[in-house]
Amino acid sequence: MATPTLNTDKRYIPQFGAFVKAKCPRCRRGNMFANSMYNLTGQNMYHRCPHCGLTFEREPGYFYVAMYVSYALNVAEMVTIAVATIILTGSESPWLYAGLLLGSILVLAPFNLRYSRVILLYWMTPSAKYRPELSGDLPHDHEQNGHQH
Prior knowledge:
Elements (H helix, E strand, L loop, with lengths): L14 H6 L44 H25 L4 H30 L26
Helix pairs in contact: 2-3
């Protein structure tokens, strides 16, 4: 029986941490977004990774698929909130549910936008596979080429 080995490469960056921080799926160092999730100016996504140069929008209309991922996230959130409300309050008031669900849709919209794209790039895009050799410091400068989307 083979025993699992830990990756001792100093350039290796764990997937979960990079996913949560919305880092590039290929190098796990460059930011996918130029600003924070919740701000008044909206979310600006880079066209390319500022670190390794990966083009995030693989083809025109690529992020339309992220709408389906966002829909799945919304459904899961709404079911969770509705069930939690039933368990915690036992209320049968449709106004309570409507208020909670509509409010949560608005509050979670920036989260769903960001993570639907991150999920699409991390788990549904085989060409954006992690390459640890790109996680180190690179000699070329992509910092100025990561234009916002």
